[in-house]
Amino acid sequence: MNIRARFAMDRKKIVYLALICLMSALSAAPSAASQSDVKKVYTTSHINPRAPAIDGRLDDSVWEKVGWEGGFIQFRPVERADPAEKTEFKILYDDANLYVGVRCWDSKAAGIERRVARRDNFEGDFVEVTLDSLADKLTGFAFAVNAAGVKGDSLYRDGAMSNGSDESWDPIWDVATSVDAEGWTAEMKIPFSQIRFGRKDEHAWGLQVMRRLFRNDEVSLWQFIPRNSPGWVAFFGELNGLRGLNPPRQIELMPYTVARQQLFRGEPDNPFATGSRRALLGGLDGKLGVTSDLTLTFTLNPDFGQVEADPSEVNLTAFETYFSEKRPFFVEGRSLFHFQLTGGDGDFSMDNLFYSRRVGRTPQYYPDVADDTFVDQPGATSILGAFKLTGKTRSGLSIGIMESVTTMEKASLFAGGLETEQEVEPWTSYFGLRLQQDFRQGATTLGGMLTAVNRDARRAEHLGFLHDSAYAGGLDFSHSWRDRKYTLTLRLTFSRVAGSPEALLRTQESSVRYFQRPDASHFDYDPDRTSLSGHGGTVSFNKSGGGILRYSAGVTWRSPGFELNDMGFLRQADKILQYAWAGLNFTKPFAIFRNVNINFNQWRGWDFSGANIFAGGNINGWGQFKNYWSGGLGINRNGEQMSASSLRGGPSLRLPGAWNVWSEIESDSRKMVRLSVWGSGNKRDSGEMRSASIGAGMTIQPSRAFQLSLSPGYNYYKNELQYIATCETAAGNRYVFGAIDQKTVRLTMRLSYSMTPDLSIQFYGMPFISAGKYDRFKHITDSRSRDWGSRYSLFGPGELAWDEAGGCYAAAEEASGLAYGFSRPDFNFVQFRSNLVIRWEYIPGSTLYLVWSQGRTGFEDRGDFSFGRDVDNLFNVHPDNVFLIKFSYCFQL
């Protein structure tokens, strides 16, 4: 729905880089050029007592109280051109609702595209009405509908480092559409309880109305905003005439019940694996308007059984994988708690003070038991309850308070005829506070965020590896000028974790920092430490609008002691990154293109000792052709780098520079059959690492209600230096590596059938096969050597043998006399995950779910890839099936 493609290094060096950004910002020459046209104003009228019937016909006499408003201007493909078809709208209101009628004239009414889909996922002809009811020029409440009557709604947020459109927002409102010989119409009823506004005698709200003419891939706007504008909501037109409104206090209570049946392979003598398990659960979700500015959203004993499974993977890196959030309570309204340390994309962009997947995570302890003991381990930590208090005051202060409590989780153990329990996750409280004040109508913002995690980790001695407490916070400042074309952004963050020496040793030795590295002396590795503190931040300056040229420059850092992973996400500490970007954005059609973007990126990084550890750059471009096909390509160059993570706590490893190329092409997205093909390749200068990925996508839409998409992919990866194990010896650690040959095949399948906008069937399935074979085993000798062959030593004849009895490789170095062992690293991993969901929103806000989820996972240590055999193995694995029925009813009080 979002149409607008929208680092001790000494302190002197950090300050120097920050000053570069600041001076660049101050050197921007003034200009009087405006980003948008003259503001349009629409005046509405109050109706009483009779409201229009929401049937999509716009034939109620009450609509005659106001005139039609038009004057739409083309947004794309040709800016400022007249639209191919005329669009008009009217707006009325009463004490409880806003009514919007839109007439989409169409001289080719038979060509109106009416595709039926689930809410927010539609294509086709549609209109969207967006209200800045807070009048803050930052927040827009968007209500959309396509010609088939499928709803879409989203929350737009302007501002530096915002994440644009949030489609998780699902207000309760009513809409109907009608198609006739002259085009189609939409009739909306938007309750004032679903949007936010302050108490005033008379309101002036921001207003935008958008139409998409699907067959031409044309978007037109009532209030024209150039595509190179640095904002969206800030440049809306105005809705006047709203008088005597009393902000209603929203009260919605949604009790639910879930019946669940799980079927799986039974195990003889295992009382926990009888082959089936049943459960009947219940809970309550709700929204309460505490004041006209603040809304309390809560959930008690939530269930997320209808949520799609995470994609399969084999992670051979030292780092945690970042998975997206899909649970409705945490998805909705997440933009307010979004405190991203660094904008853009790449590894640094994932770092955030709040990563909601921490709440309800998989228990972090697994019982250490004998082989004859059966264990029933919880798959996730139960959330007792959670709430969010969010809103924005009339003075422009955004407020967000969040609290989640997860229960103590216990695993059940059975041995010798006795069943016992052992704690695997302690009681935990997750708290978040977010404040942000707007100035200058949102062109300047100042805010902060605080997170706190507190655990009852000392209750059980074996849980002492977890932090007792973890606190993090930050301040963010953004200042825009020249009609928001230029922006200076500052973000400063801190963290402090505390716990037992065991917990802090684990933190110091984690892949985030590896304090045990023998060649690092710019921080203290202290086994007796009981707390750890750090800081991070970003200073950036960017030009985000006006003309075809856009650019950004900045510096971002994470100190060695910085830690966010109790409630947030942090991939690596002890890094300083300097970056610069420039982009050319051609929005007007020329030659064979409708639009083109070309980007130039440069980056360079240090650790906090001041050592340069990486550098690189890339050039990439993306464009849409006049035949509606699109494509992109890019080339990356990474220079030689010093990797602090490759040896998993050992000394840094010098890695050769590398080239990476990628490309993608997509067919016309309007067609009933859409195709895409993409590929990428990566090769180090020494040739010791090569990888390639290819994939394709096909979407078939044989009818307005049915859609099938298939996306196969293949990945090939060879690396002469793939980490296997760290082995302790009398002479110190030996870092064992091997040459890996890995092949991975996956297929993502999606099927959607929407009988009505409120009744749909959706299927998601992903078979995944990955095999990795290791040979040329070796150990690291001189990790920093500039000579590639001197960095390691291959095991010679007689130095390495397979120990069948011990089930491991036995190494015996002839030169040193050292002996040690390591497990076989070869793998064949197969997995299938699927979800079939029938969803019926039988009345607005109330839903019935019928869900079937299946999982199959298999593993062998054979290592060789055989597609036919591995597919057979996958579907020979006994499935784990979950069937559930979830019923909820929304009470609006």
Q: What coarse outline follows from CA principal-axis ratios? A: globular
Beta strand %: over 45%
Structural class: mainly beta
Instruction: Please report the total strand number as a whole number.
Output: 48
| Biggest pleated sheet | 24 strands, antiparallel, barrel
Radius of gyration: 29 Å
Question: Which whole number gives the mean pLDDT?
Answer: 92
- What is the distance, rounded to the nearest whole angstrom, between the alpha carbons of the first and last residues? 31 Å
Tell me the quaternary state: single chain
Number of domains: 3
Number of helices: 4
Helix content: under 10%
Which ranges are low-confidence, i.e. pLDDT below 50, for 5 or more consecutive residues? 1-36
Structure commentary:
This protein has 893 residues and is mostly beta strands. It has three domains: 34-243, Immunoglobulin-like; 335-568, no CATH class; 663-893, no CATH class. The strands form six sheets. The protein has a 24-stranded antiparallel beta barrel. Strands 1, 3, 6, 7, 8, 9, 12, 13 and 14 form a nine-stranded mixed beta sheet that branches. The longest helix has 16 residues, at 11-26. It is globular and about 95 Å long. The relative contact order is 0.10.
List keywords for this structure.
893 residues; mainly beta; Immunoglobulin-like; 24-stranded antiparallel β-barrel; 9-stranded mixed β-sheet; 4 helices; 4% helix; globular
